[in-house]
Hints:
Structural class: mainly alpha
Distance between the termini: 165 Å
Strand order of the largest sheet: 1-2
Strand content: under 5%
Helix content: 40-55%
Number of helices: 13
Shape: rod-shaped
Number of strands: 2
Amino acid sequence: MSDWRPRGPTGPPPGAPAGWGTPFPPEKPRRDAPPEAAQAPTAPAPNQYQAPYGAPTTPGYRPPYGAAPAAPSTPYGAAPTAPPRPYGAAPAAPPAPGVSPRYGAPQAGYAPPAGMPAESYAAAAVPGVPLFAPQIDPMTENRRHLDWRRIRATRIDGLLMVPVAIALLFLFHGHPVTVWFLVMAINLSYHFVMETACGQTFGKRWKNLRVVKRDGSPAGASAIAARTVFRIIDAQFIYLVGLIAMVITGKRRQRVGDLAAGTIVREDDRPWKPAPSSPLLVIYPVVWIAAALFFGSQLDPKPVTLTNDAYMQQVDRVCEQRMFAEASLTGNASFLQLQQISLQETQAIKNLPPPVTPEAVYGRKVVLKWKRKIDKTAAQIVADARTSNNPRTTLENETPRLIDVMKQAEARMAALGLPHCARL
């Protein structure tokens, strides 16, 4: 008989000892329990850290350590029912713009950089963690270290204009003012087109520089046009004016053109997108070159002739008197006599009153230029003959040089319409 009594619904009876109505501990079998041999063996319950080995069909079965799994593992972060997605494949449905598939929407104020898709930015964005280091404000950055690079870039661009100037001199021979205006117009057009299209000339590209607005945004055609026109002022005295303006502006390093256009020159190490295209990119160069041709044609000296200028008639009469003086020499005139007559002719032209018309000023200048050249060549020949052991031979050997100079002078006098001055 067992002394175990079930506990009543109202609790143990009064005076019951401690532990009355509680079951025996597990190690003390009950007296009315069946024999141990008749009890069916029970398997220990599996837990989350260790599972029993056995058949794969056993509930809670896990393969032994090191064995290959029976089914492919689920990718990290994917739903249990979703099939594995190959690395690099596009997702089944693209995430919403600005929403990260892993972390959700980024914090307010985060926007994808220029040229970067919003989906790619959102996929890599972590709330509270910036993807890029903050950039320096263009208005406060120090650009003093770019001075020598800007000077070298200007030299490179200037060297590119040398072959252009040489070609124009051959093309517009005898029109020096037109050539000067054209070189200036082509130089301005070169800087304007290059800096508007890509923000840098060949010299700036070589030195890794770029022209932008003061806030770092691309400069448009209007701003670059203003910066280019003021280059005429900055380039005075071999860009001394522009250099002084850069020093005065301190760490901003802006020349007069930059101050007028609101631009700066900074390092080309940031993302850049050209400004919208403008018809000024074609209009300005055409206007500048056309203006250079017009003003050059107006200011270039015109060839003068004897028939339309009274002053040049006086110059030709002086040359006629020189011809009479040479004809009055009896016999073979010596070299020294001819030299003396030529010097008197040059001095007589100098003693004429100053001309009034621009054509006469130009004609008198050309005549005196070639007369001085003839007198200088004759003086050198006479000096060489006096220092030589054989003066006659020296005169004979060097006289052809004087004849060549006189032929060139005759051609120029004939172009001026001076028949007597052309007969030397």
